Amino acid sequence: MSTVLDPTRAPAAVAYTFTSESVSEGHPDKVCDTIADSILDAHLALDPASRVACEVLVKGNRVVLAGEITSSAAVDYEALVKKVVEEIGYVDADQDFRPDNLEIHVFLSAQAAEIAQGVDADTSLSGEQGAGDQGIMFGYATDETEELMPLPILLSHKLAHSLAEHRRNGSAPWLRPDSKTQVSVRYENGVPVAVTDVLVSTQHSADVDRETIRQFVALNVVPEALGHWYHDDINLMVNPTGSFVQGGPSADAGVTGRKIIVDSYGGMGRHGGGAFSGKDPSKVDRSGAYFCRFVAREVVKAGLAKRAEVQVAYAIGVAQPVSVKVDTFGTGDEKKAEEFVRANFDFRPGAIVERLNLLRPIYRQTTNYGHFGKPYLPWEA
What mean pLDDT is predicted for residues 227-253? Predict the structure, then answer.
């Protein structure tokens, strides 16, 4: 088998294996993302003009909220955090991290006036909504799946989601909320041909043995999640350390924004470095990345490329982007694709918010199992 440093940009004839991972909503970092996006939704539901930049840290029985929020909405953060933790599934009495045992610390202030004056249309130098920060964002799409997502991350998400569904419906009562999944896919001539390896690490109760867990995952979770990509020769690893009883924030620390590759394309597309959760759409880290995904999808749907990546760059307080770039990886006419993008898509932050109708409490449904590939999200429409 030939190998390259960057298979996503390799010649079509190169064969390679590409791996992506996902995590469940019970992973400590995802607990933080879910709390942050729940706070964002709570503010937008009452005040669509809210400006939210909320970070969360969890460890043991402690939850720390920090950041900047400017909003006319009054939100009971303590009650909201406890509700989210219960909904995720951390309710067992033997865990430090559970709703009735939490210590919640709030360090939230208003957004800095100097940022607001550049973002708000009535005070910005350009007279229109400026970018909430400088930075670069990427969006990616590929025709290798119906969702226009890379297959490795799509299947990894399905595995993690399947574990959560079995936990919630009681078919495996020993499952606990924290889990990680990983899928390796063999590509030939630029096309996925087979799943080669699957890794599932799932938290569980102390009264279940490893073989029971492995059999359940092998006979139920993996075939269900992989669908027609399932075959008997997959190398399956389940809880390779032997036991995973201690998990979640009771055993580990979590912070918002640490799963940006899980949130996007599993490493198949580039990433500008900005996290999504806890940020209102004036922050182009989020809205710009969502719009780049929307545009990349449209390039592929229009038949201009089999794979497309869109990059946009902004300066803080400025509406017009610094640059917009389209990459088709040799799978289409790049010049035509760039002309199509420039003729049909307005990358100004205010235009993005309006086109995708982003001032709504829709963000908690983005938090887990990927911000892309879900047909009910406006940038996937």
Answer: 96
Residue pointed to by tokens 């996925």? 192
Within 13 Å, how many C-alpha atoms sit on residue 87's CB side?
12
CB atoms within 10 A of CB 373: 22
Domains of the chain as residue ranges with CATH: 7-24+151-247 (3.30.300.10), 28-119 (3.30.300.10), 135-144+268-274+281-380 (3.30.300.10)
* Residue 138: HSE in the Cβ half-sphere, 13 Å Cα cutoff: 17
Answer for the pair 103, 77: CB distance below 8 angstroms, yes or no: no
Residue 58 and residue 99 in contact, taking contact as beta carbons nearer than 8 Å: no
Pair type for strands 307-314 and 62-70: unpaired
Are 52 and 32 in contact by the 8 Å Cβ rule? The answer is: no
Active site members: 27, 29-30, 55, 68, 180, 244, 252-253, 258-259, 279, 283, 285
Record the pTM: 0.94
Q: Residue 172: its pLDDT value, please? A: 96
Residue spans of beta strands (DSSP E) within the chain: 16-23, 51-59, 62-70, 103-109, 135-142, 175-188, 191-204, 235-238, 254-255, 307-314, 323-327
Predicted pLDDT of residue 2: 39
Report the pLDDT averaged over residues 14-25: 96
**H-assigned helices in 272-333:** 284-301
